[in-house]
Amino acid sequence: MQKLTVLGTGVLGSQIILQAAYHGKDVVAYDLSDEILAKLPERWEYLRPLYLRDLPDATDERIDAAIARIRATSDLADALSDADLVIEAVPERIDIKRDTWAKVGAAAPEKTIFATNSSTLLPSDMADATGRPHRFLALHFANEVWRNNTGEVMGHAGTDADAFEAVAQFADEIGMVPIRVKKEQPGYVLNSLLVPLLDAAAKLYVRGVADVETIDLTWRRATGAPLGPFQIFDVVGMQTPYNLNKDSDDPEKREFAEILKRDYIDQGRLGRGTGHGFYDYA
User: Fold this and answer.
1) Which of 75, 180, 186, 282 is deepest in the core (most CB within 10 A)?
2) Strand 113-116 with 85-88, pairing
């Protein structure tokens, strides 16, 4: 699959776009307005030094060639017109995702395979909205895709085996290690392991048991992990944990969401991508 369309150009969407282009794919970047898309060059220049720092084969020339393979549009029909694969990275709300996929299913060519990058929702939660559930599955990326290079491939009971394998092959072709998830599981493999850690850290903080730095230090020193949970929150960005916790039945999770909104999001401290989160970054 050579021609990729990515729906949503936020933190993770833009990473998927550049990663695929870096590995030679022709990529269409879609978002709702030209004003949003006009910010993409800034995103490429933010990612450039990270690629140069972390990848031994990265050069300015290769990154320039990748950027040249990216085309941006706010016209959905245009974005989908020749797509082999569509990856959706829109906000983590089922109503937004189902509405997006209904529009995509009505406009995409018959050949197109559909993949959601949802972190928390199951493919079966939205597959029917496409009108082509047999061509629908999940391809889940970890943040900082050029470094944490796994692509979790997870279908639902109605996903065609050939579509599943085509997406696993695509993940391999863009530098990911394909993780074939054999059965639908909320959180895939990665988040099934990671989310309980982050929830536990948030509750320790809300309860006043320890401060951010102490919680992170404890986890790093005791396990040998490179990052503590609040450093991981900074990589993920504040908006995702806020959205996941603000309407929780658990009062401590709601309180954590309120802290994120008041002390971080409203202060422009959105995570490592903006230079400021729980920590400050050069």
Assistant:
1) 180
2) parallel
Q: DSSP assignment, residue 165? A: H
Same-domain status, 135 and 208: no
Task: Using only the alpha carbons of the chain, give its radius of gyration.
Answer: 19
| Phi, psi angles (nearest 5°) of residue 82 | -135, 30
Q: Are 126 and 86 in contact (CB under 8 A)?
A: no
Whether residue 79 contacts residue 73, with contact meaning beta carbons closer than 8 Å, is answered with: yes
Residue-wise pLDDT tens digits, 63-121 = 999 999 999 999 999 999 999 999 999 988 999 999 999 999 999 999 999 999 998 89
Instruction: Identify the bridge partners of residue 276 per DSSP, sorted by sequence position.
Output: 271, 280
pTM of the predicted protein model: 0.84
Q: Which domain holds residue 213?
A: 192-274
C-alpha pair distances (Å), 269 with each of 191, 203, 241, 252: 23, 20, 14, 21
The answer to whether residue 280 is domain-embedded is: no
- CA 55 remoteness from chain centre: 20
Residue 150 within a domain: yes
Residue 103 makes CB contacts below 8 A (sequence gap 6+) with: 76
State the DSSP H helix or E strand holding residue 161, giving kind and residue range, or none if neither: helix 161-173
Query: How large is the greatest C-alpha to C-alpha distance in the chain, in angstroms?
Result: 55
DSSP E strands in 61-135: the ranges are: 70-73, 85-88, 113-116
Distance, in Å, from the CA atom of 86 to the CA atom of 102, rounded to the nearest integer, reads 13
Q: Rounded CA gap, 184 and 69, in Å?
A: 34
